[in-house]
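fyi for ur records
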Amino acid sequence: VQLQACGGGLVQPGGSLRLSCLASGRTISSYYMGWFRQAPGKEREFVAAISRSGGAKYYGDSVKVRFTISKDNAKNTVYLQMNSLKPEDTADYYCATLTNWGTKSSENVDYWGQGTQVTVSS
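which gave:
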């Protein structure tokens, strides 16, 4: 499966962005899907995950309440709605297919997409 993320950009603190991840090659209904992020000089961090059906989700502690992951299996696309953005949310954001459900490790990934850059700054 190939993953293409987009939707990043520059946003002011308190603003919102929606990232999209379009999959090709296989349907995303076959996979657990997730988002990770990596800030300069830091390790890759888990952001959110969604189950194959979309009925279950879990989040990293730093983004709970503010971020929402969703998916549209018909469009083969996963989304990350980011609200109340903070400067510390600045990072490259990556979508991925997950090997197992329930973990937050970046090693729990089968396929990575390329990153889309999010910068939160006034």
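The longest strand covers residues 17-24. thats all i got for now
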